[in-house]
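User: Continuing from earlier, I have the next pair ready.

Assistant: Great, send them over.

User: Here they are, in order.

Assistant: Folding the first of the pair now:
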Amino acid sequence: MAVEAAGLTFSHGGGEPALEEVSFEMRAGEFLALIGPNGGGKSTLLRLISGLLRPGRGTVKVFGGAPAAARRQIGYVPQFSALSNAFPATVLEMTLMGAAVPGVRGGSWGEDRPAKEKALAYLDIFGLAQCAKLPLSALSGGQRRRALVARALMGGPEEFILRPGAGEPEFPFLLLLDEPTAGIDAEGAFCFYEFLGGLRGGISVVVASHDLYMVSPFFDHAVFVNRRLTRIPDASLTPESLAALFGPHLHACPLADMQHSGGIVHSSGCTHPACASGPELQPDNSNTG
């Protein structure tokens, strides 16, 4: 298993639980989407998986052991970067730091030709190769997000990431992404998930987002996190799954429009125009997309 969580409960400063009795399993090579509202505990869950936080109760394992033991097999991109615009490094130098190896005097990373070629290849994947020699302050918010993902990938299996489908990766790797497409336009977000889709089976990926649209064929599984965890069947948004997460909507509103998008009447008393006008519709099972 890539991740095993059992009864995870965590509180910030001893207050109300940010997470309560969270349990799930994720196999190696799978893609998992965490969706839910802001403040629902998604970021906290990622920090527990990465080993940056310790649970108050329950356990979490990464590749069968404690997260700390798997630190070199985890790439993590937080929702908010602590990097200052005044950080004295170029985009290339910041990317190279993703391959840091702990040592007696702190972390160190290679700056030889192979390391730089690898970092440039990752930056090129995200359209940032031309920015390699620029200071971090020169990047837009969206560009910085992409550069941070490139840095996180530096610790992963190089052959598989640069040449997807080339064979089994040399070691298991878990990529944790917290709101990775924040500040990126719609086209860039699609291309980003398309790239992740090409890594399917080679690395394990957990993506947290508050955007409902991200639950898509890119992911093997999806869960809804709002202090507790609820599984979304088939990693898809259907009128049934929306109603299960948010409750039925018996009036006209955008969420009700989404619930009716599949042509399903969920209540005989519904006043939504799709129900009020004409005979009741039956579920359309022909559309499997």
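And the other member of the pair:
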Amino acid sequence: MTGPPPIEVRGLRKVFRQTTTGQSVVAIDRLDLAIAPREVVAIVGQTGCGKSTFFDLMIGLEAPSEGLIHIGDKSPHADFDLFRGRIATVFQQDRLLPWRSALDNARLPLELIGLPEKEQRERALTWLNRLGLGQFTNAYPHELSGGMRQRVAIARAFAVEPDILLADEAFGHLDEVTAAELRDTFLKLARECGSTAILITHQLEEAIGVGDRIVVFGKSAKLLADIHVADWPKSKYRLLREAIQSTLQSNRPDPRLTQAANARSSPRKRGPGKKGSTSGR
């Protein structure tokens, strides 16, 4: 992998027409967003704000009504075949095939993109081992716990060595201890592989804990806030949670988030004695 390309979303709009009434429903309205290679971005928003629709557009299952999504200089919908094996998704449900073993489930996407069977098995085994499932490669989904099944789903995603990893509420259905362990594993592996990772979550603690950035969607997937977590020291995480919650409830940016964004974009003033510093020489 030479490295993931940048992601650019500009003027993105997605409108669905209800089959029963014929009325138009705006799922995403004029969304602008840029994601740099290898960033980890958490997307939060209330139910019905277009998060999952955004993922469908990202993986090319839907075409934009207006605007664009570009990964590099290509469209995931118009250039769908080009992105086979370059984008991988982990869903809330593991979506394992019950008639296939853990190994055969993990190698399924490699089979679909036409890799030789030996390479399929080697890659799948590598990732199952890395996720602690080396002794369960021949087990079937009904023989595995929920956390183990989700580990197989994560191994399946990493096996294709993707440029971009998408996680759609991938840990929210698990118990808190298992969810935290799998989330940490997922992020560690994503950073080791140099993949861009985008996670949808409804849990603010998870968003703050995993993301380089937190993107807050309002209704119709309007961008309400784009938060750089590094700008918030841990001592202010409670304030950050409150500001995000306020933004979600009011469907408009909380002033505290706006102030932080403005401070970030303003040139930092040098303190006394810093000008022309030659420390370290």
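Worth noting for the second one:
The two ends are 38 Å apart (CA to CA). The chain has nine helices and nine strands.
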